[in-house]
Input
Amino acid sequence: MTARIKICGLRDAATARQAARLGADAIGLVFYGPSPRNVDIATAAAVCAALPPFVSSVGLFVNAEPAFVREVLASVPLDLLQFHGDEAPAYCRAFSRPYLKAVRVKPDVNLLEYAARYADARGLLVDAFVDGVPGGTGEAFDWRLLPPDLPLPLVLSGGLDPDNVRNAVNRVSPWAVDVSSGVESAKGVKDLERIAAFIDAVRAA
Output
């Protein structure tokens, strides 16, 4: 099975369309003010409108007020929600939309317990733990901490780039990979050549 590919943190329709043409299966929109990849509702709606068929749109939230998530969903046709904070299972399922739960991995985090708590999630997205930062750090983590028998589909994130993603896919065999900073030329600025190289590396794994 070829791992699916999500390019996260896109902020304009043209780049999102080109990422899809290069082979991305999904694009991510960040609705989190402190992030350099934060996008407003109008821009996010324009990005979704530019996507071709069968390319999914994913909205990333971090401990957002439920009213804000609903405001986004009223204007942006997101296929999947991605929760990167301390959201409880009841919160995650409150929006009648499929969701991923992100988990920042460190040695004392029990991913099997997370999978049991968020059993109705479409998958667990695993990222590096960096104190005080919910994601998008560009840091990797020890893949040996991932259990081989996780009952939910695994989305691998954290420090992936065109140079290491082929090895990551071969070692971890995730359902999907998620990249943001690893395909940027500067914070929040996507590089189409790096996106193409990343996608090629996943396909070659």
